Amino acid sequence: MKRKVPVLLSMVVAVFVSLCLAVPCFAAAKDEPKKDDAKKETRKEEPRKDTAKKESPKAVDLNNASQKELEALKGVGAAKAKKIIANRPYKSADELSKAGLSKKEIDGLKSQVVVGAAPAVAPKDDAKAHPAAKTPEKAASPAKEEKPAKDAKKEKDAKKEAKAKLAPGQKINLNTASQTDLELLPEIGPAKAKAIIAGRPYSKPEDIMKVRGIKQKTYDQIKDNIAVK
Q1: What is the DSSP letter of 118?
Q2: Local structure of 160: helix, strand or coil
Q3: What is the pTM (predicted TM-score) of this model?
Q4: Average of pLDDT values for 178-193?
Q5: Contact status, residue 213 vs residue 194, Cβ threshold 8 Å
Q6: Domains and CATH numbers, the chain
Q7: What is the model's pLDDT at position 52?
Q8: What are the pLDDT digits (tens) for 68-121?
Q9: Residues whose CB is less than 8 angstroms from the CB of residue 136 and which lie 6 or more positions away in sequence, other chains included
Q10: What is the CB neighbour count within 10 angstroms for residue 193?
Q11: How would you label 114-151 residue by residue, b for 16+ Cβ within 10 Å and e otherwise?
């Protein structure tokens, strides 16, 4: 019986030692798949980084880009960006020559730029944008002109009536007649009447033709109604 106890004890110790050795190995076996999975995930992420590096920068629109966006282009500084904006719109990248860029510079920018539609220009003047607003003023202007036309017609009619009162054979003295009396003569208005008075004295009726604006035709119409005394 005493011999069996050490044998059993030895077996228990052996089993315990075996278990102690087996547990780390089992844990290590579990960790290995995790490491493999981590390596696979790392490999999957690497192509994404490469793809991000290969993505090209966004092209800049020559007709709509801001000065800051244009300055970001390779070889374009503040001065050239301002010239590009000043010479808009562009139909193609080749028209950058208008902004003073050389052919070499344009060729270098073609891969970085696009030509979009030019922005619509807002009207500078409200009057141009709404021409109908001026229509009432134009319609009102003829009404203003009607009044002077009527007054002029009345004045002409009044002169005709006054001249009609000049009796046949009635003589008007060129040296003493008033402006009103002189205006009774045919073809003599205020301006010519004043000129006749300014040209006094007259020695004979024909001298009236020395007055500016009075020629032979006018003299023939008034000679029967004028005299010099």
Answers
A1: P
A2: helix
A3: 0.32
A4: 90
A5: no
A6: 60-114 (1.10.150.320), 154-227 (1.10.150.320)
A7: 45
A8: 999 988 888 899 899 999 999 998 989 889 888 899 998 988 888 898 877 665
A9: none
A10: 20
A11: ebeeeeeeeeeeeeeeeeeeeeeeeeeeeeeeeeeeee
